[in-house]
Amino acid sequence: MDVTIKSVKHSLRKRYIRLAPILFFLYVINFLDRVNLSYAIAANMFPDIGVPASSADFIAGVASSLFFVAYAIPQVFTTLRINSMGIRKIFAFAFSAWGIITIVTGFVQNVPEIYALRFILGLAEAPFYAGTMFFMGIWFVKEERGVANSFFNAAIPVAGIFGGLISGAIFTAYGNNPGWRYLFIYEGILALISVAILWVVLTDFPEDAKWLTKDEKDALERELKNEEENKPIKVSWKEALKQRDVILLTIVYFLGVTGLYGYTIWLPSIIKSMANISAATASFLSDIPYVVAAIALILILRFSDKKGNRKHLTAIIFFVAFAGLALSAFLLVSSPVASFIFFTISAIGIFSFLPIFWNIPQEALTRESSASSIGMINGLGNLGGIVGPILVGGLQSYTHSFVAGVYSMAVFVLLAGIVVLMVRHSR
Q1: Where is each Major facilitator superfamily (MFS) profile domain found (predicted)?
Q2: E strand spans, 103-240
């Protein structure tokens, strides 16, 4: 066993260099295409296509949420398909589809068109995140997975940084309209370019890797098999979906994602409302929470892999998000600067929970059951992406303020922190 461990460690550098950067890059592209609507909303996209100003935020929330209605549909079965077919074919199709859809979004003329495109985009993007979580579970052993997850999930704040810079630059160059149209077109083209990159660089399964020696592949296979045999939950994929922890983790993810997408979709608009600034300025300022979240994520993940209890650390992260959001909402009207500071602090919790959280099902479930369970957790949990944008946008339309919406996000992340403490099988 000592020889096996030594050989696995020897191949670690190869696996990180080969897989981590491309997965990071793909997630940046994925997240840009998912949340570019948030910058378009701040640039008055919906009034531009004929939506009355009084209902624009609610309609925008519905448009954002339709993505997640479709996103949940194929989750379990696409992840199981990746287990049998491999990642390259499914990802190549997905990136091609959502690249084309994103480009077409730049030409929309009315609300039904944007509704239809957001729904189809959700179907196209469905395999990516859960598929990557499963993919890393078959390429990295438990001791390596935290770092791999952290590097991958760091793409969210990094994508936010790039998204703010790209949209700010486009709005500065072209104005709000046609700036928001060019935003979709340029970012859709990036997704299409990614197809060729992922096809060349990714390898479906360790046994297919020509860049690993036979000894390295055999050692990795033995270590993963040993890990499978010692996992606390050993059931078929159908039974795994009924497990108490899987259900609780789905609830936690739903609550966390509600806060996450309520935050990301409305971030530029909330910042814009604080000081009546332009969409371009709001886009640039949106980078500040993402930069803070990226720095915090690195520190939190280093602690998690060395000493952290996954479950308790995830709960603490949610409680930090709750405190930041609650204080931001309280100060939003009376002190916009202080409100922005606490809103930025809340980003630490909003974005940092993902990599810590995903270690829990990866470490507790066997390969077959993890494929289906991760698909279910990701698919049903991402229904929070329906609730968050509609809730924040609807409350803004009703109250003409984002205060109630920010408070609502605070409640959801508080509940997520409480529920995750009920999970039994976790490091």
Answers
A1: 22-427
A2: none
Report the SS3 class of residue 426.
coil
Distances in Å between the Cα of 414 and the Cα atoms of 74, 84, 320, 326, 411 are 29, 38, 9, 10, 5
The 10 Å CB-count burial string (b at 16+, else e) for 244-275 is ebbebbbbbbbbbbbbbbbbbbbbbbbbbbbe
Cα distance between residue 302 and residue 351, in whole Å: 15
For 195, 199, 251, 260, 289, the CA distances from 310, given in Å and listed in that order, are: 34, 33, 17, 19, 24
Better pLDDT: 349 or 241: 349
**In the chain, what are the domain boundaries?**
2-420
Q: Give the predicted TM-score (pTM) of the model.
A: 0.83
Residue-level pLDDT at 410: 98
- The pLDDT value recorded for residue 305 is 67
Give the C-alpha separation, 78 to 93, whole Å.
12
Strongest mean pLDDT among 361-375, 376-390, 404-418 = 404-418
Which DSSP category does 208 fall into?
G
The answer to whether 88 and 199 are in contact (CB under 8 A) is yes
Average of per-residue pLDDT across 154-177? 92
> 397: Cβ–Cβ under 8 A, 6 or more apart, which residues?
54, 55, 56, 57, 58
Tokens representing residue 3 in the block:
């020889």
CA angle in degrees (0–180, nearest 5) for 266-337-271: 20
- Tokens 């997408």 correspond to what residue? 261
Distance, CA of 12 to CA of 3 (rounded, Å): 14
